[in-house]
Amino acid sequence: MDTFCGANPATRLKVRFIMEVAWQAHFVKNMFIRPSEEELANYGEPDFVSFNAAKAKVENYKELGLNSETATVFNLKTNEQVILNTWYGGEMKKGIFSIMNYLNPLRGIASMHCSANTDKEGKSSAIFFGLSGTGKTTLSTDLSVSLSVMTSMAGMTKVYSTMKADAM
After folding, report:
1. Residue 136 has pLDDT above 90, yes or no
2. Which of 51, 111, 133, 163 is the most exposed place for a label (fewest CB within 10 A)?
3. pLDDT at 152 over 60
4. DSSP 33
């Protein structure tokens, strides 16, 4: 499944997900930006490929110096992620989020896992930081203020570019 990670065309990644079960494709469809028909026609090669082999195990994990038959591995030379022996869908999302957190600072972009809002006059803003599920979006959703961005955002000079307001 071909997707985008990042709403800004200048900085987003083209990410291809290859998975073995249907619910993983559904998860990716909901978590990442789906290209339009025109964007798919011009998609070309992806910037990063994520292989989810949830049913496969690392049989020789001890020989490899690993702690279990489960692994999420990144190769930054070939721009690939391999997920083995885990049924947690978040490995796909968190994995690509980690890649964005690695790449963005190299491009002069500060990555933040946060939510933010601003007052109706646009004079006062607040940024809420925290781990997943700790209430960033809930805290930033106040009817007296304008919700400006949610979930994951990458800050550029005087510009905030959401990875996606309702998904990554």
Report:
1. no
2. 133
3. no
4. B
Name the phi and psi angles at 37, rounded to 5. -60, -40
Q: Which residues contact 46 (CB under 8 A, 6 or more apart)?
A: 2, 13, 14, 15, 16, 79
Q: Which residue type is seen at 60?
A: N
> pLDDT tens digits, residue range 51-68?
999 999 999 999 999 999
Compute the distance between CA of residue 132 and CA of residue 168 in angstroms, rounded to an integer.
Answer: 13
2-106: CATH class? alpha beta
Residue 166 DSSP code? S
Q: How far apart are CA 91 and CA 132, in angstroms?
A: 13
Q: What share of the chain is helix, strand, coil (3-state, %, to 5)?
A: 20, 35, 45
In the chain, domain spans: 2-106, 110-162
